[in-house]
Amino acid sequence: MGGFDEEQFLAGNLTPVLFGSAARAFGVDHLVRALQELAPSPAPRLDQDGAPRPVEDAFSAQVFKLQANIDQRHRDVAAFMRVNSGGFTRGDKVTVTRTGRPLVVSRAVEPFGQERDTVEEAWPGDVIVLPGSRDLRIGDTLHAGRSVQFPRITTFAPSQFREVSNRDIARRKQFQQGLQQLGDEGVVQVYVDPKVGMQRPVCAAVGQLQYEVFEHRMREEFGVQIGYSQLPLAVSVAYSRENEVAPPRAGGMRILESTQGVVLLAFGSDWALENYRKDHPELVLEDIL
């Protein structure tokens, strides 16, 4: 049994484990103090070209999470972002690198449990939340001054697939809204088969719990009762944009597309995927999306 080694922790080779109970608020203060004592100071983050963005540079931040309906009264989407460089002041005008559009941050809050305190200033390492951020996506870079793009945030290719249906036709609008918002959050991945269209969307996940959370939130937050139809698919890969041809077809394979432009090839077994790789060695297929 090894003990705690700070050098190994900072190198990313060791993960300390703390025990407590968030439900009873037992140990939460110990966790916060441990983070204060053990976590390293903010360091330069590498951009997508591998160049470091100094913490003293102009403001930059990256969106790492979206959360719909934090405030049930407004039914908005909040974007969680980490400040990577520079200083942030409420009311600043920044640019979203992906779109090139300006964004005036008129309101920002700092989350701590259920509390939301208004943020006037933030610095590298701080996490702040921007309410009403429907145009932002996970992985988006925001910046002032010199432009920067941080590497995209990756996720595992899904292994469970279900067609999802709306059991109440009168709530079609809420159904579509829930699919869009919860798909953007990453609760599940939402795809469509180009041959079928949006009338039979496909929800993809890596575990059963994701479907349970998705069903619960669709019911409680959007008032929609959904049904599932299991698909005979068990493994998938992303079809890289480096490929210059459309995906060659194969028996039992489904081609699915997301609203973010990801093209997914889904197969019924590992064996079928490996045969596809052997038949088309020239194609770039990615296990991480």
Q: Can you count the helices?
A: 5
The mean pLDDT is: 90
**What top-tier CATH class of the largest domain fits best?**
Alpha Beta
Which structural class fits the helix and strand makeup?
alpha+beta
Outline the biggest β-sheet.
8 strands, antiparallel
Kindly report the CATH topology of the largest domain: Alpha-Beta Plaits
CA radius of gyration = 21 Å
Helix residue percentage: 10-25%
User: What is the number of E strands?
Assistant: 20
Count of all domains: 2
Spans of 5+ residues with little confidence (pLDDT < 50)? Answer: none
H/E element sequence: HHEEEEEEEEEEEEEHEEHEEEEHE
**What is the molecular shape?**
globular
CATH superfamily of the largest domain: Peptide chain release factor 3, domain III
Q: Gap between N and C termini, in Å?
A: 36 Å
Q: How would you sum up this structure in a few lines?
A:
By secondary structure, the chain is an alpha+beta fold. Helix content is 19%, strand content 30%.
